[in-house]
Amino acid sequence: MRSDILAPLATFCGDRRFRDYVLNMKNLSDSGNSFGEIVSTSSDQSLTVIETRFDLTLQVMHGPDEPTTVAMTTCTSRETPRSQKVHDELLQSYKIRPEYGTTFISETIPCSPDFVGSELDSIEILSAYPPAVMEYYMMWVAEYNEAWRDRGKQSVNICENVFFSAEEEVSWNVAGYLLAWRVAMAPEVGSVEYSTRQSWYILKTGNETDITIQFLKEQLYLLEKGGSS
Asked: What are phi and psi of 200, to 5 degrees?
């Protein structure tokens, strides 16, 4: 993977709106001086790390002679790994889809004839996570709703871009992607469908590398063409 595909991560880390989301990072010095004091470098230049304040750490291993690999870890996942006794049909699945005036997250009904669905709001869903997850998730939702109002939108239409620049859009997409992964990493969660305006991404343990590379390539394309239309 070429280093330029890490540009969406650097854009996110360099965005003042999301500065507080990041606790530490390594080998993303291209994000600029605005983040200077917490930008660190590693002797291993093939490892890029973003440690968030909502209990998720992203690690991207990339080098000229080795395939790129991606790892997502949480303190909770390290302490309480998913039980092998939990059947797939009993795991929770969620969708996170931006829509003005909502909190984006909803339950996906499992394909089980015995499942009785229930309406869950974001507080019910996220209350099972460390408090920082809900705190930063709701801040992320608020950023979208504020951008929507700033654009003077009169109707909910996901095909319309609410952001003023490609950098704003990509930064917000990356923040949501990381938050969605934190939701997906819970032992009782099977998958999370995370949506940007362009694509759906199915986040579940085991597909971190393939789906993250796809996501970063599409965000890089947005940066290069100046945003979505």
From this structure: -100, 145
| Structure tokens given for 146 | 């504020």
Query: Using CA atoms, how far apart are residues 60 and 212, in angstroms rounded to an integer?
Result: 9
pTM of the predicted structure, to 2 decimals:
0.84
SS3 (DSSP) at 70: strand
Inter-residue long-range contacts of 82-86, CB under 8 Å, 24+ positions, other chains counted: 82/187, 82/205, 83/187, 86/187, 86/188
Q: How do beta strands 22-26 and 69-73 pair?
A: unpaired
CB contact set of 88 (below 8 Å; sequence gap of 6+): 190
* Alpha-carbon span 223 to 11, nearest angstrom: 9
* Distance in angstroms (rounded) separating the CA atoms of residues 160 and 203: 25
Calpha distance 80→156 (Å, rounded):
40
Whether the Cβ atoms of residue 133 and residue 182 lie closer than 8 Å to each other: yes
Structure tokens at 217: 């390539």
pLDDT beneath 70, residues of the chain: 1-3, 29-44, 77-89, 109-120, 153-160, 227-229
The pLDDT tens digits of the residues spanning 134-179 come to: 999 999 999 999 988 887 754 555 556 788 899 999 999 999 999 9
Measured distance CA(86)–CA(95) in Å, rounded: 21
Nearest to 15 by CA among 165, 212, 214, 184: 165
- Please, what sign has the CA dihedral across residues 63, 67, 73, 77? negative
